[in-house]
Each structure stands twice: as C-alpha cells, then as structure tokens.
Design brief:
The chain has 299 residues and is of the alpha+beta class. The protein has 3 domains: 2-48 and 55-74; 75-145, Helix Hairpins; 154-298, Histidine kinase-like ATPase, C-terminal domain (Heat Shock Protein 90, 2-Layer Sandwich). Helices cover 58% and strands 15% of the residues. It has 6 helices and 7 strands. It has helices spanning 2-42, 58-112, 115-145, 158-175, 193-209, 266-276, and strands spanning 154-157, 179-182, 188-191, 216-223, 227-234, 280-286, 290-298. The strands form 2 sheets. It has a 5-stranded mixed beta sheet, with helices on one face. Strands 1-3 form a two-stranded antiparallel sheet. Strand 6 (280-286) and strand 7 (290-298) form a beta hairpin. It is elongated and about 120 Å long. It starts with a helix and ends with a strand.
Amino acid sequence: MTNYVIIIIIVLILSGICWYLYYQHREKQLVDRLQHMVDQAVAGKLKREEITESKVSALENSLKRYLDDSLLAGENQMLQKNMIQGLISDIAHQTLTPISNLKIYSELLQEQISEDLNETADTIHEQTEKLDFLIQSLVKLSRMENGIITVHPEHISVSELLKSLDAQYRSKANEKQIQLEIREMDTLAKYDLKWTSEAVGNILDNAIKYTGEGGRVTVEVQSYSMFVRIDIKDTGMGISEEEIPKIFTRFYRSLNVSELPGVGIGLYLTREIIQAQKGYIKVESEVGKGTIFSVYLPQ
C-alpha cells in the first residue's frame, strides 16, 4: 500500500513537472512570436497574412491589430506631412511672382510719388518684405521638419562664420548707430556654414532689432574641450524669465515687441538648425539690461 501511494505521488509530481515544462515552452513560444511581430513592425515588414484567428492566441491578435493601427496612423501622418509640404511649396511658388511685382511697384512708388504719400509707399514695401520673409521661413521650416533640408556639418574655422555675420549685419547695425563688435577667434567647430550662418544670424538680427540706438551688440567665441561657444550679447530691452522658455516656440512674440517687425519663426528655426548639428542654445537675460544667447557647436 505504501509503495502504491509513493508511485502515485511520483506520477503526480512528474505530471506536474511535464505540464509546467509544457506551458513554459508554450509561453516562451508566445513571447518569441510577439517579439518577432514587434521587430517586424519596427522594420516595417509586418504583414497581415502572417497570422490568422484560427492558429494564434487572442493576445497575439490584439497586438497585431494594435500594431496595424499604429502603422496605419504613421502612414496617415506621413501622408498629411507630405500634403502640407506640397501645399506650402505650391503657395511659395504661386506667390513668388506677385510678391516680386509688389516689391518693384512699391519701389517705383517711393521714387515717383509726393512726400505726403511716401509713408504709404514705405508701408506697402515694408509689409511686402514681411510677407516674403514669412513665406520663405515657412518653406524652410516645413522642408527641415520633413527632412527635405538637411545640414552637413564639417570641421570649419569659426572665423568663417563670424566673417559671414559681419558682412550681413554690419550695415544694419550702423543704420541704428549700434556698436557691433565681432571678436574673431580662429578655432575649429563642426557645423554647416550656410545653415549655421542663418541660425546665428537670426539671433544677431534680433539683437540689433531689439537694441536701441547707441547700444552695443557683441559676438565673441570661447573654446572648450567638446564644444565651441558663441555668445551674442546685447544691451537691449531684455527678456523676462517666464518668457525665455517660450521664445523658441513657433510664432511666439512677446507683447513688448508686438509693434516691431517680426513673425516669430526665426528663433524656432534657429533651435532646429543647431539641434540638428548636435548643438544647443542657452539664454540669459535681464529686463532693461540686455540678453546673452550662447550657441554651443560641437568640436
């Protein structure tokens, strides 16, 4: 009797072990299949015909439906991006000629009309320039976000960037009687000269724009072990602490500068360009005393 009981216990134990191993094997197979499905989805190779309701678990099918929906949502999002990109490109193309004509005729008006109407002609010309800048900025922004425009960083002397900035903005500073000091430094950084000139140029343009006559704008460079830092300092109106996180968002403009020209795209585009090159930007400012934008470019 005792031997019989022992045999039954042994059989039960072995059966339990067999069932445990069986379900562990089934569980491993299920996990492996789910992992394979996720890997296929990430690689963009997941196909609906790979599984059917008759031969897989409800969990697998739920995951399959979820992945299908995610892939479809991604495809729809990409389609919408392409549509927006196409729309913006069409708008830019269609408005190119009218804007060019408006510029030409506004310049002719400025030359021919009387002094009483000269202010009106100046306004037309200014608003045309603003519209042209807005459309071109939207096109650049859209193309960059969709990966159509890409940066190509190279090891270049920072002095090349500083010379480009000096050539573009010296006359604008002189018009406002602002002392522009660009302290050159011959050190290498890894950046795309064309796009970085535009990015840092947006900051320098703002510094000149928001600094009063007789003020000072300084550009200087410091070299570190991993980054080159470019500081753009001004003695302008400054930015409040609560506004600093907002200035890099699209179309944001402070109420303090609402009467000055601008559309609120420049700094957003600047940040996108610098981040695309594995750099970053820091801002320090005090209202009424000025602002320092620090651009860090990798070496």
